[in-house]
Fold this protein.
Amino acid sequence: MNSFSLSGRDFTAELVFSASRSSGPGGQNVNKVSTKMELRFHVLNSAILNENEKKLLTEKLGSRLNREGELVMVSQSERTQLGNKEAVIEKFYALLAKALKPRKKRKPTRPTAAAREKRLESKRMNAQKKEQRLKPNP
């Protein structure tokens, strides 16, 4: 089983940032200052990720990737560009960690004796109910 880890890996060289004006209320600050930060990360061109990780990311984050295979994330919750940049980087690492975390294998379980008995009793009751609906023979 492969275990994926982000520890010790720095993606900052592969991240592309752009700033634009945030939407919503805020008066002059919103109208004049470009505080919204957009992060772009090209999954398939990444030199840091190995082939298995790239494949896993394209499968799990397929709906979040654009046609070029870029993951685009946006943050506009903070009032400053630096605050939004830090927030979007944090969101990026959290998303990558979640996507690369291997799924837990399901352990098959069997129904308990009480559960089996309860199911059979329910079937008996249902059969009895339907038996009473039949017309009597003359």
About this structure: The beta strands are 15-20, 36-42, 70-75.
